[in-house]
Amino acid sequence: MLFIQGAADADPKPTLAQAKAQVADLQEKAEVAGEAANELRGKISAQQAKVKALQAGIAKQQVQVDAVKRQIGSLAVAGYQTSGMSTTAQLLLSTNPDQFLSQASTAQAFAGQQNSALRKFQDAQGKLSDLQASEQSELAALQAVKAQQEGLKKQLQANLDAAEKVLGKLSDADRARIQAENEKEANDARAKRPSRDKGRMDDNLPNVPVSGRAGIAVQAALDQQGDSYVWGADGPSSFDCSGLTMYAWGKAGVSLSHSSAAQYGEGRRVSRSNLMPGDLVFFGSPIHHVGMYIGNGKMVHAPRPGKPVQINDVDYMSGYTGAVRPG
Fold first, then answer.
1. Is 288 a catalytic residue?
2. What angle in degrees, to the nearest 10, is found between the helix axes of 16-83 and 113-168?
3. CA 139/CA 201 separation, integer angstroms
């Protein structure tokens, strides 16, 4: 009985307030891991582009190698027709000409055009081998970055699973209460989406003039209020933090990376005192969150898993890092 009691004491049920705090902390950790995984998207894309370019180069170089092989073969046939089949020609026309060609640099049977063709082959084959070695190196680097991203995604999911376990310790009534609170939060956020009549924003939003591309981006972001947070999502009905800002500015014709850390380098830096609607505000060190400033000290953002796209004070998030103005 003492062992059973000890086991029970080791895993006590949290209070509702404790559970909410634990879940919020785990969800925030999941967002941090998610944005770190997002940051690797650019590295993966760049690595894939390198591999693709090398593969195209390999295909082009292989054509050159094959052309030189055919030239050498033709020279060997011509030599046979005029002076009989030499030992060199026999090797060349054998079932394994590559073996011959690799040894041909030490052969003394070729002269004139044959030596020129051999040198061409050696040069072409050397370039092909270099390209193939580079391809293998870049493929290995690509796999390493992908493995790093997969590790972060597993870390993200582990935090979300841990949050679910915390909720699983609560009573049915407490879980139902949390679900109702989450639904109300999402509904309240959706109710604050901009009014379409008269081309103005809802009266509940900050009264800050905004126009041009920034106005389009702000409108697009505000239109997503109430949408759910999903890692890796960039619309049209679910988002992570950098997916939301990428989506909104994309509507204004400005291309951004799907990464808060990357977006910090994709605009002109602005001080906090000079923030304008549409500016992107960043948090964390390293950066792991981004929102869109809408005026009067407020931002619209996708806070974290379990929270809908919503408007909050910029100070809602700790660790303010800086801001940029895209476009």
1. no
2. 170
3. 50
